Amino acid sequence: MKFLLIEDHPIFRIGVQALLQRRWPEALCVECGSLQDALQALREPPAATLALLDLNLPDAGGVEGVARLLRAAPGLPVLVLSLNAERAFAERVLQLGAAGYLPKDQAAADLVRAIERILQGGRYLSADLAEHLMQRVGGQAQSLPHQALSEQEYRVLLLLARGERVADIASTMHLSPKTISTYRSRVLEKLGLGSNAELARYCLEHQLLVGEG
Predict the structure, then answer these.
(1) Domains of the chain by start residue, with CATH
(2) Under-70 pLDDT residues of the chain
(3) 24, 75, 123, 206: which has the fewest Cβ within 10 Å?
(4) How many CB atoms lie within 10 A of CB 79?
């Protein structure tokens, strides 16, 4: 069994590794301080069993890290760890294909349980996040404009709000600049905004950029 622990804070890595070694003493735990380190580790045998991914890395912030990791390793179970308990993040990472979402302040109590569930083929969410998603499915929870965006549109929204250029976003997402410009136009229209500055302001107001990791 091989775990990839993709986290740039050494103290948190130490704590997580201790939990993993206590439950799975024979497992190999590969620590990666960046997404690039993780992509390199994926190329080295043995094959990874599960990845634990911080949402805020030096070279990949928010849902972009999830998207890039799953593109490099389709089918790899990914448990996202985040300081932010914002429900919108949980919903998005699950839609992208992550196997679970765990706020970091719940890791000490729930990490092993979450991993066990994922290794058994299930998905993991804390009780309060699961309840919110059930309400969303049932139409009881209030929706915000960004929640109606497609996954590609949402990724473009966050990258634009971070100040990325269209050409750079196109390279990151392996799409043409024309396609990214089309996504940008759709995002502006759906959110009722007129510029990249307004996109950034919207993301800050809804805490889509703050405290993602």
Answers:
(1) 2-137 (3.40.50.2300), 145-205 (1.10.10.10)
(2) 84-88, 132-142, 210-213
(3) 75
(4) 23
